[in-house]
């Protein structure tokens, strides 16, 4: 009986859990969101150190590998005895005697082994140090492994796709950061102070939301000088995307501030002598931080798609900068569609990234209100 009494006195874990614990428990029940979280983390790990995951130098040209098709990786070699281990067969180029079309066939007499954590070309890790260790490395440098094939200049599409993840995924985060700062500052001022300031900021938000997004992006991107260095192009494209992405977040923040400024804990903080900055950043913002995180997660894929679209149309980032949009420009002509469909594989990376981030955002948005579960 004593044990039963003690058990009944134990509080429910939901009653004593913090808000972040409730959000995490609710998020874990969202299976698709958990899968999306794993995929998103893996993608950003690749974006942080793309050189480690790339097999070949993304800028190295090979005239002998023009429009080289993707190669298959094998584990069991039965053509040269019976052996196990990652390997691939070089593709031998022949010509159709009637149409002269290029035909690639595997040369099974010359298997090339693939080394895990092998040595390849040198690359920099976040500008801190240089190394040549790669996740996968070919044992024969004269016949490189081309998992996604090669483009019209013989460059490795897989390595370029991995390298492009760094720009395409980071531009989403940086762009959303700028939008977040503008949205929180202007939305917070509008909701906290109200009055004429609120009226002016709301009319500014209405104006920004009324603009046709794609034509504005195209016009502003087309105005950028083509000769600017890659770093400056990257920054300007990010700012362009941010200038049209902050208004919706600002409206959400304003609404939350309007509802919170009359709450008892805000009034208690004022009576306690807390400054306005402390009330805003210490008391009000943390109370709906989960909603902001969910909004950010849903805004990142929109930024990625915007950069991809602008670069694909030739108005965003320009070569030699590598992004997924720049890579998809290689697939704009009929020859690529007919003879080299693997040039569309960077688009698959865009689809996976956008789907993962959207599912992650949906999971976070649903988990942001754990008391409604």
Describe the structure in your own words.
This protein has 373 residues and is α+β, with helices and mostly antiparallel strands. The chain has a four-stranded antiparallel sheet. A two-stranded antiparallel sheet has the order 3-4. The longest helix is centred in the middle third of the chain and has 37 residues. The radius of gyration is 27 Å and the shape is elongated. A hairpin with a 5-residue loop joins strand 1 and strand 2. The chain has 16 helices and six strands. The protein folds into two domains: 226 residues, MetI-like fold (Orthogonal Bundle); 83 residues, no CATH class. This is Peptide/nickel transport system permease protein. It is found in: Cell membrane. It holds the Pfam family BPD_transp_1. InterPro entries: MetI-like (IPR000515), MetI-like_sf (IPR035906), OppC_N (IPR025966). Belongs to the binding-protein-dependent transport system permease family.
Topology (SSEs and partners):
Elements (H helix, E strand, L loop, with lengths): L1 H8 L3 H4 L2 H10 L2 H18 L1 H4 L20 E4 L5 E6 L2 E5 L6 E5 L5 E14 L3 E10 L18 H37 L1 H16 L2 H10 L7 H14 L3 H14 L3 H8 L4 H12 L1 H24 L11 H5 L5 H6 L5 H23 L6
Antiparallel strand pairs: 1-2, 2-5, 3-4, 5-6
Helix pairs in contact: 3-16, 4-6, 4-16, 6-7, 6-9, 6-10, 6-13, 6-16, 7-10, 11-12, 13-16
Keywords, please?
373 residues, alpha+beta, MetI-like fold, 2 domains, four-stranded antiparallel sheet, 16 helices, 6 strands, elongated, disordered N terminus
């Amino acid at each position: 009986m004593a044990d039963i009494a003690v058990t009944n006195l134990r509080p429910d874990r939901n009653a004593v859990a913090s808000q972040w614990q409730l959000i995490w428990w609710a998020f874990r029940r969202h299976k698709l969101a958990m899968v999306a979280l794993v995929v998103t983390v893996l993608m950003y790990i690749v974006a942080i150190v793309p050189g480690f995951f790339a097999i070949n130098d993304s800028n190295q040209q090979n005239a002998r590998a023009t429009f080289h098709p993707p190669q298959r990786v094998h584990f069991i070699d039965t053509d040269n005895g019976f052996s196990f281990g990652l390997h691939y067969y070089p593709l031998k180029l022949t010509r159709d005697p009637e149409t002269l079309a290029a035909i690639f066939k595997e040369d099974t007499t010359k298997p090339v082994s693939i080394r895990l954590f092998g040595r390849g070309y040198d690359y920099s890790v976040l500008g801190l140090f240089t190394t040549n260790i790669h996740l996968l490395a070919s044992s024969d440098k004269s016949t490189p492994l081309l998992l996604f094939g090669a483009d019209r200049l013989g460059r490795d599409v897989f390595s370029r796709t991995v390298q492009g993840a760094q720009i395409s995924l980071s531009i989403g985060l940086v762009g959303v950061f700028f939008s977040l700062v503008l949205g929180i500052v202007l939305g917070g001022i509008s909701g906290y102070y109200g009055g004429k300031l609120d009226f002016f900021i709301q009319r500014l938000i209405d104006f920004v939301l009324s603009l046709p997004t794609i034509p504005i992006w195209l016009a502003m991107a087309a105005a950028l000088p083509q000769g600017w260095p890659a770093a400056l192009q990257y920054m300007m494209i990010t700012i362009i995307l941010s200038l049209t992405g902050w208004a919706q977040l600002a409206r959400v923040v304003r609404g939350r501030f309007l509802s919170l400024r009359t709450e008892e804990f805000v009034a208690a903080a004022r009576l306690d002598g807390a400054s306005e900055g402390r009330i805003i950043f210490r008391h009000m913002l943390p109370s709906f931080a989960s909603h902001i995180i969910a909004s950010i997660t849903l805004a990142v894929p929109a930024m990625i798609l915007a950069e991809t679209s602008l670069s694909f149309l030739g108005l965003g980032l320009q070569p030699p900068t590598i992004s997924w949009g720049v890579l998809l420009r290689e697939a704009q002509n009929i020859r690529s569609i007919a003879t080299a469909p693997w040039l569309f594989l960077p688009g698959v990376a865009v689809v996976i990234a956008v789907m993962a981030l959207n599912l992650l955002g949906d999971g976070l948005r649903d988990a942001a209100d754990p008391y409604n579960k």
